[in-house]
Each structure stands twice: as structure tokens, then as C-alpha cells.
Amino acid sequence: MSLKPHQQRVVEEKAELDDKLTKLGAALNGGLREKVSVDEFSLLCEQERVMREYSEILARRIANFRSAR
Known about the structure:
By secondary structure, the chain is an all-alpha fold. Helices cover 78% and strands 0% of the residues.
């Protein structure tokens, strides 16, 4: 299936976001807690939550692209 340029950008954006999410999750689960302040760790956890929500929204948009064909 061929996507329009703006749709392909959304697919690429989700892939990049998911890569960053994987790296952030690994850092959060890999001893980062001991290296940063409690406040910083809390903010990073919140960031991960919001990034995950954003990724889910992008996934729904991509599904809509594919079902609209």
C-alpha cells in the first residue's frame, strides 16, 4: 500500500518515537534512579507515560490511513 507523503511522515515519526521510548524505558529500568534526583526521575517517568500515549495516538492515525483505502 502506498501512503501519501504526510502519512509516511507520521509512520516515520512513530518509528522514531518508539525508538526513543525503548531507550528511555531501558534507562529508567537500568539504574537511572540512582543517578538522578527523585524529581528528575519522576519527570522522566511522566515523560515516558506521555510519549507512550502519543505513540498510541499515532498508531490509531496510521490504522485510519490504512482503513481509509
